[in-house]
């Protein structure tokens, strides 16, 4: 009987298993599946761990989790895997269009994912279809008829491998290496290489007279900030439900100070307040169809695209129409739709492009956050850049489906990924409440925005001294790294990936990107004229695919394509 190993059983691994079982039920093919997951919560994995604190929030509105559909009943080999409800049915979700969007804690989705996995596992664990192995695979070697997997001192022979291992550790930066070396053997100083799990900061959150530097100014910083400040000394309180204006109240003095900083100092922009304001930026169905066809024409069997204009031009038409239609809600202008389209093209090609319709990012960071909040609330004139990136967010599912596994030049694909990464300050932005919490902490003198823009950092006897562009200084005794590594394959340090690269089982599509894969996730690789039956879904395939960091993509068509392709070739 053919044996398949699925390495990593987070959301992607869970959905891959479900789709595989559905395909096997249709074809009556028999295989043995081994699932490897080292965490305590298969289906959820470390990112969606149901036991993480409530201070870690999802950054996608719960309204859009309707895309996690129900699993139908599966009948195979005399076994019935019961149907499992959609996320919305599971949590009895209900929300009116005018009500504020909800962004639940990540542990809530994690509980759903873990329960969904267990409902599969309980049905198939006793009939030789599936075996769960709680371990990390360390190395993979070629065997006579497939592969030998090595884990925890044991081995497993299998014919095929599917990697769905998500975020992997990478080589840390020289800056972090220097900080760790400096803090070594100094009990008063701490350097945290990663933010997660945030529970590692438990010993810090109720300390007094502590100044903490946070490297990074994105979503991960917000999680660290929230965990550290919801403590025995204070908490947040919403003062105005219409604007989510928040205060941070102190029950007793702590003298805690958080100092975030990044290379550009630019803050996140929150997502729109509710479905009504979000729909302001939604393209029409016919516009999405036109965009999709334009991309497919330029990128598929006989690609004609030589630069990124093939994508930017059709998108700019949509974004210009949306902004033009926002005339009573946008910054005042007398521009024609065509002029706006040209402005958008210039803006997308040049991160430093300036225009009266584009938000001036050089203003005070506190005021910039307030402007973004008011735009997201629909209570301030919308700038062109805010509008463009909200439209981009609505178009991202189309980009992810049509640009993945295209025949584009690798460098052109890298340009597209870079632009999508640039968008994430807006498209992957947090709820309004998170940004109001930042302002509340500034007002309470708990968080400082004075050093967000690339401060000079030097080591001193009692820690690190940060100096901003005005010459203002502050010293910290704790450094937290909240910058998540990009999935650059050649920098990954996990033993499994390093071993597979060394053995040439996998190779990067580009030096700055991930593993080269086919449409069905199959790795483009051969060893001694033998085609390797290894497939990769998710973050490590970035470059072949787009949208690897979106949780909804874990339940998308790429996983279905893999399952159908795998069973077809059995």
From TrEMBL:
Q: Which residues form the FAD-dependent urate hydroxylase HpyO/Asp monooxygenase CreE-like FAD/NAD(P)-binding domain?
A: 5-168
Q: Which InterPro entries match?
A: FAD/NAD-bd_sf, HpyO/CreE_NAD-binding, L-asp_N-monooxygenase_NS-form
PANTHER family in UniProt: BLR0577 PROTEIN
What is this protein's name?
Answer: FAD-dependent urate hydroxylase HpyO/Asp monooxygenase CreE-like FAD/NAD(P)-binding domain-containing protein
Which species? Answer: Winogradskyella ouciana
Q: What is the lineage of its organism?
A: Bacteria, Pseudomonadati, Bacteroidota, Flavobacteriia, Flavobacteriales
